[in-house]
Amino acid sequence: MSLSVSCESVCQKRTLSSLLADRVIKRPKQEDLHQLQEAAIQLLNQNQNLASLLREVGSSTPSNVVCKEKATVEETAPGGLTPATAGSLLVSELRRQAVQQGVPVVALSVRLVLERLTEMTGGDVGEDCRALLTSSQRNHLDVLLQTTRELLFLGAFCPKLFWQEYWKDQKQPKLEVVHHLHSYNILTFKYILESDEGVGSWLLSQLKALCGWSAPEDQPEGRRAQQNILSTVLGILVGTAFEESQEDTGATNRRLSLFCSSLLDDMLSWALDTLDDTQSTQSDGTAPELWIQLFDASLCGVSVAPEALHRFFTHSLTHTLTYKPRLTVSEAIAMQNGWSFAKSSRLLISIFRKLAVIFSVEKLLCHLQQVMETHEINWQHVLSFLSTLLVYNPYAQPSLRELLSRLLSSAFESYDLEYMITAFLLARQGALEGPAFFPSYSDWFKVSFGGASGYHGHSKKSLVFLLKFLSDLVPFDPPQYLKVHLLHPPYVAVKHRSLFLEYISLAKTRLADLKVSVENMGLYEDVSGAAGPLVQPECRALQDVEKAVSLFENTGRISATVMEASIFRRPYFLTRFLPALLTPRSLPVKADAQMSFIEALRKADKIPAVQYTSYVESCQKQRQHNKLGMHVESNDDPLEVLKVQLKEFRRLAIDGNDGDVSAQVSRISHTLGVIFPDHEEHIVLQTVIKLNLEAPLAPDPHVKVVNMILRSFCQCIVDVSQTNPPNKQSLWASQFVSVLLGHTQLVSALIHRLWDLFHHQGSSLSAAHVLGLAAFVVHLHASKSQSPLVQMVPSLLPKPVPVTEALSCALTCSTHTNMLFCVRLCVAAVCYGLCKADAPSQLQDYIPNSLYKKLSYLIPRLIPEARRKPISSESAEASVSPEGVDQEVEQPGLWGAATHPSTTWRNTAWHVWMHPGFQQLVQLPQYQLVFAEWLSTELRVQRNEDVLSDPERQEYQQWACLELYLSCPVERGGCGGDMKTLCSHILNAIMDQQLCGQRQVDPHHRPSETGTCLPDILSRLQELVYDMGLTGHYSSRRGGGGDDPCHFLFELLSQRCSLSPDSQSISRELNLQHTLQTWNRVLLALPAVLLVCVRSQGGMRTLDCQTLVEHVNQHQRKVCSPAGLLPYHITAHFLRGVLSASVSCDHSSGEVNKAWSQISLHCPLLLVSTVHWWSCLSPVLTSLWHHLMDGDPLPEQLRLLADCHQWACSSVKVTPSQMPSGPALLLASSLHCAWRGVGGGQKKNHDFRATLEMLGQVKERQYKQVLVFLLFLCVTDLLSTLLYPQEVKKNCLGARELCTDILTRLVDSPDWLLVFKCPKTEQALHQSVTMVTPDEYTRLMPLAFYSLLLEQSAELLERAARCPGFLHTAVFCYSSLLTLFLDGKPSSATTETTANQMDLTQILRRAQQLLLRTISQTSSTALSSSQLRQLESQCAALDPELAAALQSHFSSDSLSHDMDFL
Predict the structure, then answer these.
(1) Residue of 364, 536, 901, 1036 with fewest CB within 10 Å of its CB?
(2) Are strands 789-793 and 688-692 parallel, antiparallel or unpaired?
(3) Angle between helices 1128-1142 and 1164-1172 (to 10 degrees)
(4) Would the pLDDT of 1455 be above 70?
(5) 611-650 burial: b if 16+ Cβ within 10 Å, else e
(6) Distance, CA of 863 to CA of 1269 (rounded, Å)
(7) Is the dihedral of CA 956, 960, 961, 967 positive or negative?
(8) Checking DSSP bridges between strand 64-67 and strand 789-793, what pairing results, if any?
(9) Are strands 1093-1097 and 72-75 parallel, antiparallel or unpaired?
(10) Is 391 within 8 Å of 662 (Cβ atoms)?
């Protein structure tokens, strides 16, 4: 009977079910169902066709519901025909037909099933159709196999016979049909694999065709079937090939196991063969990829034991590493740079990832070592496998280092070249992936061989072995590795130096052959064996120029490297370095560092004149054409490539697969290396990047790249944070930032852009931007070991600082807008860091201390409730949220508070403030906002743009000073309860701000002179100091009266003004002047009464002005302008202090008199200043005294002041009156003040000369002292006219004439000589008067001496020469003046001269002539022996002619041993 009979006759007949149904209707009586079925069978036996019966039983009518997954058929027809019944019907017919035909039943059933199967699948055409069945065919096949399984169960079917017939009839059976036979347990794959030798080739072709089949998008069922078939076949092959059991020990099983293993190897080889076809396009085929994707533990592990899966992956990894070992070692060395991860095939990377996923890094590297030792290997596959392992596994680096160490140890123990070759290739491959994954080749080479403890350092044989190996590599080594060996040579003992010189010669010859001259190596070249674009000599020279200019700017000198290169590397210096340095550009108006460096080289004759002239001319032509920098020229725009890569990176970051992220980061790094061609894979020393605050941003392409990077990072942060908090995210952010830090030029552009965003555009940034940039800063801080240092220009900080600290300087807190942005960014950064740290020990790694301090300042300032909860380790126990802070936001945790759409910065800031981790950090010194830092920040706040009103600011500052920092321990940045320390900090902060404002170059960062919180802080200082004076809080710790406010105030100034005794530099003197001027401004803001001490002695309260006197003598006199005169407001402030303090004494008037007597004797500057300003001071002091003392008359000393002033004024206007009885200096000062106040006029000058004549005629010593002091004051005016001729007032121009008048009346007395003698050796009269003027005037008294004498008449000079002690004083002044001239000190005195002044050299010449004439006219007994020895020792080296004259005139026999004048 044929199964191919037409179905038309069958279709005309009624079906079995309908027939049975009709019979039931016609015979409504209930008969036995079994009898009814037997009757039906008899009827069918007479009329039914066997093929039609099989088709009917196997039909997929609605009465048969096919469950494909379970391969079962559930009968649901109302007739109740079960599969068993249908099978029995079919078997009965089969037996009847078999008897009729004389064939076995099983043969007939096999032929029937085979014909039905052919009918279902035989009509397919086309390549795609042969791969898989259609959905309809799959349904019919399921039902047919269900029926076949029933026949098998009833003994009417033979699977083996069926396979023989099917294999014979179908040359290429469908793999899906075989899969279904296996699934229905009709035939097993093991039997099929054993059945015929051609099964292997058939299965391979079927698997390849199925892998290459692409299911239409509208047929998901086909894709599921494809995946199911492939995974089932793979599982069976793996289980058969690699499972070991005690039963499978026969030869047949071993043969089958090898056969399956061979099939798996063939499929893997097929995938590997496609690599050669797709290598050039970098786009792997999808068919092999589909097969490789099946290598997964979750797919194979269902039907395969874990041990078998391990053996399969190990075997496959070995097969991949050893597949087609065509390359020699020398070829691998030369081609290795093209095998980095970024350049490897995606399919090959996928193979390695799948095979390595279930093994640890240690096992993989051990297996790799074993394979390399026992097999011929494919070097490309081996090295690509290592790169994949480094990129995808963060723990691979230490394991690789251990492997390299073992290889090198073994190599030098047995002197095995194979170990050496393996170690070097593996180390170089790791270096290709960059510092984020493995140290650079130069680093590894230095660590391994750079020291005496290296692997080669224990014997000469080891050294020879290393050098021999390196020499053998030379013909094949790329130039970057040769340069590593030359610039970072291995350690070689001195006695073996000649051995290494041979290698140097060989390597240099090889570099010359490659046209990579050693001369073209950069001066500061960072040699790395890493992959990346080869830096051209021009680019290297530009890097050298940048480094040389930077060193010159920091040191002010040409670096030794440049100087040596100009001599020993002259070709490179002339042809590379100088052209790069002298690139024409538009020169700035003010010379920058590069211009200064060029000028220094020109002065050192290092730049040829012709080349320099050409440079200058070219710069002039370029003045209107500013060079913009880099231009990207490429057919494939790197910016577009980077944009696509960043988009893919964003997707991978959301998926959270660390391996995929690492791979994409590596590709991004490669693209960045194209955009930034000076990409450095390794940083030998920590780079210092200059952050020029005044320069514009980087060239436009760089800005675009930086914006793309920052935008992508912010998007990734926002997207990833929606699903996971920071500590649950993958390592994508740290890997991304780590790779960016490997590009120095990119890092520089990033820092510049971040500074610009933070400093100028912060208020315009959205919440997403703030969150993303904050996280970026946190990861920069976490990677600070890899980050460069930043040197800001102009310098805001004294030395280079980490990136995060530099960026924090951009976050100013001076205005409301700046504060809000700063607190938003810092809260986001600290919140991210708190959530990122998995343990308290990691908080420092993720929270920058500079941002933490800004929050410590801003949160209490902006949220008053935080002042009630200051930072402490206990304050996080229980907290009450401030008004406006939503408690419901606490539910999702701290990160939820930061990223919740409805949250505000106040909510997040409060949660951060109360977080235990935030409270814990305050215990660390580097996270403590000390009082000095708080003051510095507060003083920069602009009052008119402050977020706080004046009362709120006062309340906040009082809280900070009195509640926060006063009681805070000193070790935590507070004052330890000491009010003196608190006031000292405030005083120092105020003065530091004022001095910083004077010295700051950058106008954008200079503190504003108006509008700051300086008045507020001064008010706090006044409150504190006055409180100290009233309550005596200052003496609570030490006791006694030595701790009065005046003492600690003046002591503080002394500490700031302290100079080393030998320090006379102009810069130090200018700093001192700035300090004192700033101090005076602060001093005037303090209560005057606190500047004078009140002592309690014997039950009496008295004034003590000693501290005030010392302050004026030591400090104030150094900054007087004009010299010898305190400013009016300072003088008045001191005197008000004396009068106000006297009120608390028992005898106020008497204490004022005592105090003024002390001032007159020990503080001549204050006396002279008081006299000078008396006309202005008198009404002020009189009014104050009457107010304090209820109208009592002025104290006696003040009345004396008034009397002396009145006497002096009358002396220059009318006939001289009786001179008051007062101190000589007081009278002289009064006369000097009156003379300066009179001005010109012949009549008035005549009256004043009459007063001088009267004083000169009186023989009493007191009157002569008045003239001496008056002469001193006039000589001071004379020096002012010499030193500052353009600044002296008109009243001082007659000082020379007045000095002459006074000298005429004093010339016969030796008293006037005291004015010009050394204060260290003379009487007290001279010592006191010198405390009026600065030390500079005292040093220049010899100049005044000769400037005055040389203008006198011959008669007056003759009288002066006869004066006792004149010669000694004249020689002393001459030697002192000559010394000053040689030291260059009095140069300022001769910079500007008038017609009446002489040149200093002329003064010295005429002074010598005067001395020589005076010596010849002086008696030989005018000098004592001690005086002569002193003068000869002084003049011997300075003026031998004068010394000889002294020795010749004053012979030893005629010297007086008793006559020592004065």
Answers:
(1) 901
(2) parallel
(3) 110
(4) no
(5) ebeebeeebeeeeeeeeeeeebeeeeebeebbbebbeebb
(6) 64
(7) positive
(8) unpaired
(9) unpaired
(10) yes
